[in-house]
Amino acid sequence: MKKTLAIIGLGLIGGSLAIALKGFEDYEIVGVDVSQPTLRYAAEHGVGDRVTERAEEVLPQADVVALALHPQGILDFLAANRDRFKPGALVWDVCGVKTAILEGAQGLPDTVDFIGCHPMAGTEFSGVEHAFGEMFQNSHFLMVPRTGSKPEHMALLERLAAYIGCKDVCRTTPEAHDALIAYTSQVMHIIAVAVCDDPDLFSCRGFEGSSFRGCTRVAALDVGLWTQLFSLNRPALLTVLDRLLDNLQSYRDALASGDRQALADKLARSAARKRQMELPGPDLLG
Length: 286
Known about the structure:
By secondary structure, this protein is of the alpha/beta class.
């Protein structure tokens, strides 16, 4: 008899998961969403094995539940459905913040094993119509177990990550995850949107170099999603932003001084640090 793996939320990530997980072990992949256009598209394009809008009917039978909603949506869903999960079920999420999500999961019954996860993949688009099964190829799968997380569930997630194409599974803590994401992802999105706030933006249309296009690629973001991600990771993101402002001020000071050697020294140090990043190094998540 097949087991049930429910994916709550069929946006870009949830839809891609539903496609990528088809055929995984002995699970039926059930996509759940409240949007009728999303459900129609998913059903017509084979996103998962079947789809439904009725989470309350799926959760009591679901052996595994993946939460692929916006961050606040995950918190609200956990609170509203805490007593609907099947006893012994594995519940995990794909959210880009972990501390707030793990705190929200504390309200679940002891019979439910919640493990925070973050497959590090995505695009600048949103919606199930942009989902594709190869989304997770060669990406990192970050796992944040809780005290008491079952070894068999962690092993299941490792097999799942391998099945969808992730190159590795890295176990970490909520704090380490959120500090990493604040620096490597969230602050980069803030840089991109800040660059697009410049009054000269439209005067350069058609003359953008590849560096400009690369820097601003993610600026056309999902406003609702990123507002939640920034807000729920505020302490870690503020720390990174403060460091960035100090570094920008340092470059401005060097440029304003007219001291070319001081500017060259700073550029040389920054360039060397970037080159060092391309070399094998320690696992900072361990």
